[in-house]
From TrEMBL:
<dbReference type="GO" id="GO:0004401">
    <property type="term" value="F:histidinol-phosphatase activity"/>
</dbReference>
<dbReference type="GO" id="GO:0005737">
    <property type="term" value="C:cytoplasm"/>
</dbReference>
<dbReference type="GO" id="GO:0004424">
    <property type="term" value="F:imidazoleglycerol-phosphate dehydratase activity"/>
</dbReference>
<comment type="subunit">
    <text>Homodimer.</text>
</comment>
<protein>
    <recommendedName>
        <fullName>Multifunctional fusion protein</fullName>
        <ecNumber>4.2.1.19</ecNumber>
        <ecNumber>2.6.1.9</ecNumber>
    </recommendedName>
</protein>
<keyword id="KW-0028">Amino-acid biosynthesis</keyword>
<dbReference type="GO" id="GO:0000105">
    <property type="term" value="P:L-histidine biosynthetic process"/>
</dbReference>
<dbReference type="InterPro" id="IPR015424">
    <property type="entry name" value="PyrdxlP-dep_Trfase"/>
</dbReference>
<keyword id="KW-0963">Cytoplasm</keyword>
<dbReference type="GO" id="GO:0004400">
    <property type="term" value="F:histidinol-phosphate transaminase activity"/>
</dbReference>
<dbReference type="InterPro" id="IPR020568">
    <property type="entry name" value="Ribosomal_Su5_D2-typ_SF"/>
</dbReference>
<keyword id="KW-0456">Lyase</keyword>
<keyword id="KW-0032">Aminotransferase</keyword>
<dbReference type="InterPro" id="IPR004839">
    <property type="entry name" value="Aminotransferase_I/II_large"/>
</dbReference>
<keyword id="KW-0808">Transferase</keyword>
<dbReference type="InterPro" id="IPR020565">
    <property type="entry name" value="ImidazoleglycerP_deHydtase_CS"/>
</dbReference>
<dbReference type="InterPro" id="IPR015422">
    <property type="entry name" value="PyrdxlP-dep_Trfase_small"/>
</dbReference>
């Protein structure tokens, strides 16, 4: 089979755009070829246009040669679009896909002005190869299959898939976005057997890199070469390249996560099957389940009220009544099951479950003396709102938020008519707990923080989120109060914080102005916090305004 005979005429004729970096193969040298800014900041150079490093690594992992790997700079959506452009003449050629399936095939077909015929799967979402092949016309150039299929979640019968590949004279695109969750190796190990097969895989799902946007097409070298010819040059940027190479080294972590998600899927399915409002749970080989309800819209709305967002697929032909539920962390799945179990009970905002993804947490603490709720986000600087009833204390907490670059919404109702003690102590405990929980497994954080800002007062704060607790306080105040806060309670605040956050905290302050001294402590504390919780994939800037260290 001569694959190039299937290409569009213009693609066959076309010479690729040659980038500056195409002409020189070496690594070292003085680069005066691409009009870049020569001063190094880590990303002043163009990336490798042919993704050699990523391809080499993936080739090694998948047991393929690099010339069978196309790297897509916008997930696997990019290869889907490119395949239409390589193989389909606009307004003339056709493509086939199964239905229901992934919506992107239709979008890419429409964008390229190619007629897409969607052939329904059976009511149980099974593929019947003969039904599909019966719809092939001389104009059919591409067939899209998706296994495990989205949104139905089932692996398509591999024998039927093979029958389609063997029975079709054009290109079969097999989207294996979810293959890592299935108990089947997929078709990648057999790629060389089928010159007309393109396997799509993405790093967006099992690999945890949806935010990075990278995906792969695995195919005959001629097809890969054609896609390389027409893609945007440099579609994978240097930051993505580095992150991908870094993440691909963490295969063990990923295997563990996949095993957890498969385990959770089983648990979720078992729990769903017991619920009276569930009509049917379709079998899943992916990290989501398609579930049929009597009243999907009502269930969907009630889940939203409880802060749980799922995908409503009920208006898609074949998926009537169905919602698609992604498998989350164990506690997220608990929250989902709990919400579905109590779907008809009224809910209030306080019971809205918190996602434990991202570094945003809500901590609530109620005691006889105080009631405090704090929502802390380590990675966003807004919104913030602080109300403890103590003006000066609010002002100090605001220093933490402002100079730390955090978002904090904190409301405290305490027995201020008795004393400030409980409100300040419990606020510190809630804040410390919020930091401890938001840091999660602490992967990638700076861990240590230190700060020493100078005014006419100075404050030194040293911080370590290593997990041990120790507090050194070396600051004395001559006044009994600053604003509405007794000065003795500042030490107590930091002590309580350190206990709840589980950190080492050393604080030294000197100075004449009592107000400046305590403000300096809170500012330095904020800076130290920022430094310690910061989680950057990589950072090329020098921590010095002079540009050298
Ligand atoms: C999520 C998904 C993709 C991948 O999308 P990216 O663009 O790589 O993030 C591809 N195919 C299917 C069926 C999917 O569900």
């Amino acid at each position: 089979m001569d694959i190039t005979s299937l290409f569009r005429e213009n693609i066959r004729q076309m010479a690729p755009y040659s980038t500056a970096r195409d002409e020189y193969e070496g690594e070292l040298g003085i680069y005066l070829d691409a009009n870049e800014n020569p001063f190094d900041n880590g990303f002043n150079r163009y990336p490798d246009p042919h993704n050699k490093r990523i391809r080499a690594r993936v080739a090694q992992m998948r047991g393929l040669t690099p010339d069978r790997i196309f790297v897509g700079g916008n997930g696997s959506d990019e290869p889907i679009d490119l395949l239409f452009r390589v193989f389909c003449e606009p307004r003339q050629d056709e493509a086939l896909s199964i239905a229901p399936s992934y919506g992107m095939y239709r979008v890419a077909a429409a964008t390229n002005d190619v007629w897409l015929v969607e052939v329904p799967l059976t009511a149980d979402f099974e593929l019947v190869a003969d039904d599909l092949l019966a719809r092939v016309t001389p104009r059919t150039k591409l067939i899209f299959l998706c296994s495990p299929n989205n949104p139905s979640a089932n692996l398509l019968n591999p024998d039927e898939v093979e029958k389609v590949i063997r029975g079709f004279g054009g290109i079969v695109v097999l989207d294996e976005a979810y293959i890592d969750f299935a108990d089947h190796p997929g078709f990648l190990p057999r790629l060389a057997e089928f010159p007309n097969l393109v396997v799509l895989q993405t790093l967006s799902k099992a690999w945890g890199m949806a935010g990075i946007r990278i995906g792969f097409a695995f195919a005959d070298p001629e097809i890969v070469a054609a896609m390389e010819r027409i893609k945007y040059p440099y579609s994978v940027n240097v930051i993505t390249e580095r992150l991908v190479l870094q993440e691909l080294e963490r295969e063990a972590v990923r295997r563990e996560q996949i095993a957890t998600l498969v385990e959770q899927r089983k648990r979720l399915v078992a729990a769903l099957e017991k619920l009276p409002l569930v009509k049917r749970v379709f079998p899943s080989d992916a990290n989501f389940v398609l579930v049929r309800f009597d009243e999907p819209r009502r269930v969907y709305d009630r889940l939203i009220e409880r802060g749980i967002i799922v995908r409503d697929r009920s208006r898609i032909a074949g998926c009537e009544g169905c919602l698609r539920l992604t498998v989350g962390t164990p506690s997220e799945n608990d929250a989902l099951i709990d919400a579905l179990t109590h779907i008809d009970e009224p809910c209030n905002a306080a019971t809205v479950p918190q996602s434990d993804s991202g570094r945003r947490v809500t901590v609530t603490r109620r005691s006889r003396e105080t009631e405090i709720t704090a929502t802390l986000d380590l990675d966003n600087a807004a919104p913030s709102h602080i109300a403890t009833g103590l003006g000066f204390f609010d002002h100090m907490l605001d220093q933490i938020v402002h100079h730390g670059g955090f978002s904090l919404q904190l409301e405290a109702q305490g027995d201020l008519h008795v004393d400030e003690h409980h409100t300040i102590e419990d606020t510190a405990l809630v804040l410390g707990e919020a930091f401890r929980r938001a840091l999660g497994d602490k992967r990638g954080i700076g861990r240590y923080g230190f700060a020493l800002p100078m005014d006419e007062s100075r404050a030194l704060v040293l911080l370590d989120f290593g997990g041990r607790i120790a507090v050194r306080w070396d600051a004395r105040f001559r006044r009994e109060r600053i604003g509405d806060v007794p000065t003795e309670l500042f030490e107590h605040f930091f002590d309580s914080f350190a206990q709840a956050a589980r950190c080492n905290l050393h604080i030294v302050a000197r100075g004449r102005n009592e107000h400046h001294k305590i403000e300096g402590i809170f500012k330095a504390f904020a800076r130290a916090l920022r430094m310690a919780v910061e989680r950057k994939p990589f950072d090329y800037s020098l921590p010095s305004s002079k540009g050298l260290l």
